[in-house]
Amino acid sequence: MRYEKVIECRIVPTGAFKIVRGCPGCGCKRVYSCRGRFRVNANGNCLDVWLIYGCEGCGHTYNLPIYERIAPDKIPQAAYQAFLSNDASAVFRYGTDKSIFQKNRAELFRDTAACEIETTVACGPDTGNGKTLVNLENPYGLPVRIDKIVAGILHISRSKVKELLKNGQLVVNIRNGQ
């Protein structure tokens, strides 16, 4: 099939994922955001490493486990130094690793404002059919509403996106990662 317009998009998080969990300080479920720091604790011959999160309502903290009761020689030296120095790239890497959230049964917060959409547009030959193809890559597997993302890219309403999808004027291919 030939398309008049092909839009390549990539969804990239701007920071560590936010999580939703019960907050003992607020007494209800709240959004917790990453504080950009690690906590490293030695207990005998074992180490614990956590990524620190805080409630956006009251500031109550939650330590998201990265390593628990692990021998120090099992952690790569570069990673250990990154934990101790609260390296921003390490915070991003561990804060966007969905396997850590799945292992800890942490519920990710659906927040499209916490991501950027990298877009390139290629125009094909004028076929007169007005069809648009959107290739949407989501390498981090962010929990986002696809109709909302496509509406933002095309600068149209979500109901218009649904209408274009229904009548075949718009095709969206989604590639998820992680």
Descriptive report:
The protein is of the alpha+beta class and 178 residues long. It has two domains: 5-13 and 112-176, no CATH class; 19-108, no CATH class. Helices cover 22% and strands 42% of the residues. It has five helices and nine strands. It has helices at 77-84, 88-95, 98-103, 146-154, 158-166; strands at residues 5-13, 19-23, 28-43, 46-55, 61-70, 107-108, 115-123, 132-138, 170-176. A five-stranded antiparallel beta sheet has the order 5-4-3-2-6. A four-stranded mixed beta sheet has the order 7-1-8-9. A hairpin with a 2-residue loop joins strand 3 and strand 4. The longest helix has 9 residues, at 146-154. The model has no long low-confidence stretch (mean pLDDT 89).
Helix and strand topology:
Elements: E1 5-13, E2 19-23, E3 28-43, E4 46-55, E5 61-70, H1 77-84, H2 88-95, H3 98-103, E6 107-108, E7 115-123, E8 132-138, H4 146-154, H5 158-166, E9 170-176
Parallel strand pairs: 1-8, 8-9
Antiparallel strand pairs: 1-7, 2-3, 2-6, 3-4, 4-5
Helix pairs in contact: 4-5
